[in-house]
Amino acid sequence: MARHIYSCPLRWSDMDAFGHVNNVVFLRYLEEARIDFMFRLAPGDGSPSFSGGSVVARHEIDYVRPLVHRHAPVTIESWVTKMTAASLTIAYEVKDPEQVYVRASTVVVPYDLAAGRPRRITAEEKLFLQEYLDQEPAVA
């Protein structure tokens, strides 16, 4: 299973009054990593994959430890944990080599903007996503 790696710079404006990255800002970091994964790395030049739009159906975030401002970026690793005919779940870790700050997941639904409704994942999209699919069995 491959993991998508995204380097995310920390901005001074990301900090709250207590000097650490505000919890809401982590959603923005996840969005940046997800867009980089789904659109920049989508298969083929000129491929229509993922270009029709998508919507977020759900976010889950576990804040493991505070992240304070620094000049070095954090790394966001992402991978697919579940894929159905019309949705996928992307998992993330926001981290650096020493520690994990956030573990999260997002349920994404491909969306047909012209028709104004959800759509199925295409064969091309499924082929691309399978490279990032964690196929390890769940721990009971």
Fold and architecture overview:
This protein starts with a strand and ends in a 10-residue tail after the last helix. The chain is built from two helices and six strands; from the N terminus they run βαβββββα. The longest helix is centred in the N-terminal third of the chain and has 18 residues, at 23-40. It has one domain (4-130): Thiol Ester Dehydrase, Chain A (Roll). It is α+β, with helices and mostly antiparallel strands. The model has no long low-confidence stretch (mean pLDDT 90). Strands 1, 2, 3, 4, 5 and 6 form a six-stranded antiparallel sheet that branches. It is 19% helix and 34% strand. A hairpin with a 4-residue loop joins β3 and β4 (88-95).
Compile the SSE list and pairings:
Elements: E1 4-8, H1 23-40, E2 54-63, E3 74-83, E4 88-95, E5 100-112, E6 117-118, H2 123-130
Antiparallel strand pairs: 1-3, 2-5, 3-4, 4-5, 5-6
Pfam families: 4HBT_2
Protein name: Thioesterase superfamily protein
Organism: Streptomyces pratensis (strain ATCC 33331 / IAF-45CD)
